[in-house]
Amino acid sequence: MRSHRYCVVMCGGVGSRFWPFSRNDRPKQFLDFFGTGKSLLQLTVERILPLVDIENIILVTNRQYAGIIREQLPGVKDSNILLEPARRNTAPCICWAAHHIHALDPRASIVTLPSDHLVLKEQAFIDAIGEGLRFVEEGDRLLTLGIQPTNPNTGYGYIQQGAAAQGWEGIRKVKSFTEKPDLEMAKMFLDSGEFFWNSGIFIWSAESILKAFDRYSPEIAQIFGAPDSEYASPAETAFIDSVFPNAPSISIDYAIMEKADNVFVKTVDLGWSDLGTWNALYEASPHSQEGNVTQNCKVLASECTGTMFAVGGDKIIVASGLKDYIVADNGNALLICPRADEQKIRQIVNEVKGSFGDEYV
Amino acid sequence: MRSHRYCVVMCGGVGSRFWPFSRNDRPKQFLDFFGTGKSLLQLTVERILPLVDIENIILVTNRQYAGIIREQLPGVKDSNILLEPARRNTAPCICWAAHHIHALDPRASIVTLPSDHLVLKEQAFIDAIGEGLRFVEEGDRLLTLGIQPTNPNTGYGYIQQGAAAQGWEGIRKVKSFTEKPDLEMAKMFLDSGEFFWNSGIFIWSAESILKAFDRYSPEIAQIFGAPDSEYASPAETAFIDSVFPNAPSISIDYAIMEKADNVFVKTVDLGWSDLGTWNALYEASPHSQEGNVTQNCKVLASECTGTMFAVGGDKIIVASGLKDYIVADNGNALLICPRADEQKIRQIVNEVKGSFGDEYV
Q1: Is residue A208 within 8 Å of residue A256, measured between CB atoms?
Q2: Angle, nearest 10°, between helix axes B90-104 and B206-216?
Q3: What is the ipTM of this complex?
Q4: Does residue B116 have a pLDDT over 90?
Q5: Contact yes or no for B351 and A300 at CB 8 A
Q6: In B, residues 50-79, which contact A (CB 8 Å cutoff)?
Q7: DSSP conformation class of A80
Q8: Is there a contact between B328 and B278 (Cβ–Cβ < 8 Å)?
Q9: Which of B116, B141, B117 is nearest to B131 (CA)?
Q10: What's the pTM value of the predicted model, to 2 decimals?
Q11: Residue B334 near chain A (CB below 8 Å)
Q12: Smallest Cβ distance to A320: which of B316, B337, B360?
C-alpha cells in the first residue's frame, strides 16, 4: 500500500551570497559543499528517505535547473519534478506542491524541506519529522521545526513558543514570529529561553495547508484554485505556466505562518545551519588551531587566522598574513574579502555582472 | 653573404620565484607576462632581429623545454636549438654556445642575451648592441651592458666603471663587480655615479670568449675543449651528453667577468628590468591610482592598495582590503602573500612540492 506521506524539497534558490563558489547555473544546493561527494540537495533527499518513499518526494525548482536535478537525482521520476516558470519565493511554490500532492492523494501529509541546509544529527532529524507527521495527521495543524539557538544570530528568523501541546514531546503553540532581529533583541531572545530559530522545515497535511491558503492568503489560493484534475495530470504544465507568473513573490512565513492560529513548533537540536552565508558555513565547519577553515581544498597557510578557504576543484592555495578573510576560488572567478564584508557579496556579484558579463556570475 | 654576427639566447632557467604563474614545465621566459600575446622569449628574439639574422640565433635551453621552444619559435631551425642535458648555470652554457658558433664561423661575434628580461627602449637596445658589436670586432674585448641604476636595488649585481675607452660612446673599462650589495652599500653605489646594474647582456667574439675560458676557467675550457669538428656536427649531441654533466655549475660572472682584465662596460638606459621577482614586475608595470597592478586579468578591487594581481587565463578577481599583496592565480595553484614576503616564495614552492606533489609546482 502506498504511503500517505510526501516530501516537498524546495530547490530553486539562487544563493548568490556564495559566489563564486555558487554560480547562476549551479547554485548552492547543487554543490558538494563539504567534499563528501554529494551535493546539499542529494544529502537532503537521502536524509528524508527513511520516512518518505522516493516515489513520494516532489522537487520544486526553477525550470533552468531541470537538467542538473535529473543528473544529481537519477532515481527521481520526471513527473516528481515541478518546474517553476518564474521565481516567486516559497509561498507559491508550496501552494502548487500542495495542490499537486492533494491531486495524487487527498489524505497526504507533507514534509517541506529546504534543499541547501546542513543537518548533522540525522537520527534526531528523523525522530522529529516522524513525531511531527503523527502530530499533523491527528488534526488541522501547521507545524514548523524550531532550532535551539546557540548564539544571538541576527541572520535567522525567531519563533517564540507558547503553551505546550499536551501529550506531544517538545511541541508547543507558536506565540510569535520575528524576522532577523537586531543584536540586542537577539540576545534578549536567547536569554529568555522562549525563542527558537526558524528552520524553514514545515509539516502539515495537504488539506490543512490548502485550507490555510484559502483563509490567510486568498490571492494565492485563487491563483492556484483549480480542480484536482488540473494537477498531477497532462494539463498541469500548461495550467501552471499560465497562472504561476501572476503569483506574488512572498515567503510562506509572511503569507501563512505569521497569520495562522493553528501553528505549532517542535523544538529540536539538529546540528543545523542554514549555510546562508560564508560566515554560517565558516561556523559550521571544523576549524584549524588558527581558526582557519579549509573547504574542500589543500591549503598552505602561514600567519593566517580566522580565514575561510574554499575552492572548486583540485587546487592548492598558499596564503600568508590573512586575518578573518574569505578566499573563494571557483572556475573563472576568485573572491578575496574580509569575512566582515560578506553582506557585500550580493552587490559585488551585480557589479561583476555589469562590468564583466554574465559568464562570471 | 652570411653575417658574422650571432646571438645566443639563454632560455633554460626555472624561475620558481614567479610560482604559480611560472611552473616547472613552463618557466617565466615562456609566459606572456604582459598580455601582449607574446612570451618574454618571443619578445627577446624579435628584439634582436634587426641586428642578427634568424639563422644566426642560437637558443640554449634545458632539454625539457625543446617542445615549448619549437612551438613558440617555429622560425628557428632545430639545429639552432642547443639542448643541455643538465642544469649548470651560465658559464658552461656560454662556453658550449661559443664552441658551437666558432665551429660554424671562426670569425663570429656573439651577443648573449637572457630570455626573460624586460626592455622597453628597443631602439636604445639596438643602438647599444650595434655599437658593442663594432667594439668587440675591433679587438680582444669582453663587453657587458651596464644599466643606469634608478634606485638602490639590492637584488642586482653592480659594475663599477673605470677609464673611458677612447673614441667609443659610453664604453669604459670595468673596475669591479659586486653581487647583490646590502642596502647601505647600494645607496653608496647609487650616490657615487660610478656603478651600474649588471644586465647579463654580453658581447664578444667567439675567439675572445674561448680564449678567456682557457685563461680564467681552465676546468670548463678543458671539458669543452674539442676540435671544431665535434661541434655543429652530427657528433655534437653525443659529445655534449658525455661531457656537459661534468661541468661545474657556475655563472659567467664568477667564471670569467670578475677575473678577466679585458672587460668593458657600455652604459645605457634601456627601460630595463630583469623581472627577477614579483616586486620587480610590480615596479615595471603600469599602476592604478591606488598603486595596484593588474597583470593580464580583470580585477574589481575595493580598498586595495599596492597590490599585484596576476592571473593565467580568463578569470576575474574580486578583492577587498588588501595592502601591498601579491595575488597570483594560475592553473591548480593560488598564491596570496604580502609583497614583502616574496623572498619566501622559493621556499614555499619547495613546501608545496613536499606536501602536495610535483603537479602543483
Answers
A1: no
A2: 130
A3: 0.76
A4: yes
A5: yes
A6: none
A7: G
A8: yes
A9: B141
A10: 0.79
A11: yes
A12: B337
